[in-house]
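User: Quick sanity check before I run a bigger batch. Here is a single chain. Can you write out its predicted 3D structure?
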Amino acid sequence: MKIAYVINSLECGGAQSPIPDIIHLMQEHGASVMVFGLERRDGLAIPLLQHAGIPVRVRSGKKNDHLAAYFWLKRELKAYQPDLVWTSLTRATLLGQLIAKSLNVPTVHWQHSARLKTINAWLLRALCRNTLLWVADSETVACFAKRRLRLRDNLMCWPIFRAPPNAPTARLWQEGEIIQIGSLGRLHSVKGYDMLCDALALLQPMKDLPAFHMTFAGDGPERAALEERAARHNLPVSFYGHCEAPLDFLSTLHLYLQTSHWEGLCVAAHEAMACALPIITTPAGEIPRSVEDGVSGLIIPFNDAGALAAALATLLRTPERLGTMGTRSRSRVMKRFGPAAFAEHGRAILTAIPGLNTPKV
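Assistant: Done. Predicted structure follows.
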């Protein structure tokens, strides 16, 4: 079976980074797969795919030139002649569905987000009625898709994250050491990093706190504004930029923060857990299903700098707890998203698709 895997863009993000693991499982089932990107953006996912030996085609276009994107993808898919079109993210899903229908090819669509604009939800319901299968990337997204997209019989769940069993373990805090705090992700308004900076500013007058440092690993449109905010408040903050080795970065931390307004699964937070980091997080997407509040991390309300500052102060005053909480965090995520769980969910999806082979055990 030839599968065309169509995605909005080839920036480095939560929908892009798991693609090699996903496609490897497809290949085990006898599929030949090519990735088609409607936009390059920063293009940082391209080397990941190339390193994994996955062929990729990317359009040199922009975010809103939908007609040009449609005709490019139609030409590409007509030339490739796929047996199945598998899409990721809303724009790719809508265009991929229209083109697949014209080519008389079945479709499978990922649903990554537990939030959709009203117009996008309406378009997905209207245009994707004949989809062979919808795949939610987490239990949270599956519940959302049932409610918002009214999906039932053709919806399955494949958590998109494969927790690496060899993930490096974050180092334990030592007496007198600066407590290293970090967050990994695109510097975008959805991540709530402005609120995070406000929370750090609230800690400034607290003289009983040990020394700490916050590192943002990632790049994006909010970087300049966040740098200005950090400088204005004289915050103990640094900006790492794009991180090519996220697990190595995470292993240098003692505590991880995820302050998103919304998420799907959130690969970065689960990578942090795989590295044995305790997490302070908002209840975004799948994260509160993975973080045991008070055991492996702390869950705070959305957009509440005061609550985040209070949670940070609690853990900063008791840094000896961080290692134990991190060990519990790693155990939890390996159980939920380790290689065996990833393969089990993926094989259930792939064996439900007519024409794919069952791999030899």
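The longest strand covers residues 2-9.

User: Great, the batch can go ahead then.
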